[in-house]
Amino acid sequence: MIYTCQSRDTPRIHFIINEAAKAYEGVIPADRYHQPYMTMEELKREMKRMTFFGWEENGELVGIMGFEPIQDVTLIRHAYVLPRWQRQGIAGKLLAHLKGLVTTPRLLVGTWADAYWAIEFYVKHGYTLMPDKDELLKTYWDIPQRQIETSVVLGIPY
Questions:
Q1: Torsions phi, psi for 10 (to 5 deg)
Q2: What is the pTM assigned to this prediction?
Q3: Strand ranges (DSSP E) for the chain?
Q4: 24 partner at 20 to 30 Å CA-CA among 7, 33, 82, 121?
């Protein structure tokens, strides 16, 4: 079941992000990987900027995806599913739900260039790699230059 996450979900969202992000270890550049992957303070700042949607299974929040309209685009941010719940269609259902909420001309998602599984997931769902990724990352994301260098952006037009 999909629902809009509330502040009471913050500890569980934090747990999900940090557990799922362990998949990045040894894959993304070592200078970009750390544990926790996202601190509680960072998450609280992000939650002020966007709406998180969650997937609940048997009363347990097991997957989350952030939704952030900015200017003329909407960003999918922080898409994570707990490892034991992956490959069961949860992320696809969350993505389809968020896609249905979009009112901007474009829907974008950024991910690590070396996170091939994430790129494959978005391509499978109709997204394409954007050639102007540096410009998009500088315009719509608030991330360091090193992350811009090691990331990609995928998009789907509306």
A1: -55, -50
A2: 0.95
A3: 2-4, 51-57, 60-70, 73-81, 106-112, 128-129, 151-157
A4: 7
pLDDT in tens, the chain (158 residues): 999 999 999 999 999 999 999 999 999 999 999 999 999 999 999 999 999 999 999 999 999 999 999 999 999 999 999 999 999 999 999 999 999 999 999 999 999 999 999 999 999 999 999 999 999 999 999 999 999 999 999 998 65
In three-state secondary structure terms, 156 is: strand
Domain ranges of the chain: 2-157
**C-alpha 91: how far from chain center:** 10
Which pair of structure tokens corresponds to residue 122?
A: 């978005």
| 2-157 topology per CATH | Aminopeptidase (3.40.630)
Place of tokens 């090193």: 146
